[in-house]
Amino acid sequence: MTFNRMEAKPIPGEHCRFCGGKSLPLVKTQCCNQWICCDTAFLSIRGGGYCQFEHENYSACYFHYNENHQGIWQECKECLDFFDNEQYNEELNFKLK
Q1: What stretches in the chain show pLDDT beneath 70?
Q2: CA distance 12 to 5
Q3: What pLDDT shows up at residue 65?
């Protein structure tokens, strides 16, 4: 298991918990401990559109982790105040694949 995107590789029997990709390089998220595909194959400003970039830049889950908030993000007042209700509720209803 690795959190380091430079050590990511496809893992037989595992898949990205966000997009479902099975043949992509995977890392564990530090915030929610899920397998997620990442962009180690090439450099790009936007991260290649892989789930790791999207999760680390647009999710309340990673924001909560990165800001060192206490408790779980779903019940965090600081996160709820930061994100608009639509965005927050969308993430609350997101189902991992």
Answers
A1: 1, 39-49, 93-97
A2: 17
A3: 94
- pTM value? 0.76
3-state SS, the chain, equals: CCCCHHHCECCCCCCCCCCCCCCCCEEECCCCCCEEECCCCCCCCCHHHCHHHHHHHHCHHHHHHHCCCCCCHHHCHHHHHHCCHHHHHHHHHCCCC
The dihedral built from the CA positions of residue 15, 30, 9 and 12, taken in this order, carries a sign that is negative
**pLDDT tens digits for 17-35?**
988 988 888 989 989 999 9
For residues 62 and 29, the answer to whether their CB atoms sit within 8 Å is yes
Q: Residue 47 burial by CB count (10 A; 0-12/13-18/19+): exposed, middle or buried?
A: middle
